[in-house]
Each structure stands twice: as C-alpha cells, then as structure tokens.
Specification:
There is one protein chain. This protein is mainly α. It has helices at about 1-10, 20-30, 35-40, 50, 55-65, 70-85, 85-100. About 70% of the residues lie in helices and about 0% in strands. It is globular, with a radius of gyration of 14 Å.
Length: about 100
C-alpha cells in the first residue's frame, strides 16, 4: 500500500497525519473490508483534530452503514451533515443517510 509507505515517512506533519490515516482506512475498506477500515478510524477517535474533521465522520458513517450498524451510521451522518458547509455535499450525505431507513434486500 502506498498509504502505508506514506505513514512511515519521517517528514513531519504530512506523512503520518490524520488525513493520511483516514484515506488509508478508506483504501483498506476496498481491499480488506469495512471492519478493518473501521478499526483504523476508531483508532483515531482520541485525536481531537479528527473529531472536528467532517470527512472522518462521513467515512465512519459510510463504513458503519456497510457493516450494517445503522445506529452508529446515523449518528456519524448526523455529525458529518452538521459540520458540512457545502450544500451539495450536505444533500449527498442526507441522501446516503436516507438509505439507512430503507429495508435491505
């Protein structure tokens, strides 16, 4: 993984930043599955910068939805939507959140 290599670089702020770790988790979800990705995201929970970062909440929401945890997904979507300033992105997230209420087939 390129993200794994990036996280190991010793260049300070960028290499092992929460943003890189979130992106790594999303890539991990596609290669390993959402459970592994959620573990990566949850490991960042104690970092206050992450808790104030809207994409972290959106990623959590998406991954919780993928594993079928509707309550956690709904709560994370609530945070992501509340933090988002772009109306189009808010609308997209609201649509994704609405899918949680639909019965699975």
């Amino acid at each position: 993984f390129l993200y794994e290599q990036l996280m190991q670089l010793d260049d300070g702020a960028l290499a092992d930043s929460p943003v890189v770790r979130i992106n790594y988790a999303i890539a991990l979800a596609e290669t390993t599955g959402p459970q592994a990705a959620l573990a990566q995201l949850c490991a960042l929970e104690s970092d206050e910068r992450v808790r104030q970062y809207q994409p972290w909440w959106a990623a959590r929401a998406h991954l919780f939805a993928r594993v079928g945890d509707r309550a956690q997904a709904d709560a994370a979507y609530d945070m992501a939507i509340g933090m988002e300033t772009d109306a189009a992105v808010r609308h997209f997230l609201q649509g994704r959140r609405a899918l949680l209420a639909m019965p699975s087939t």
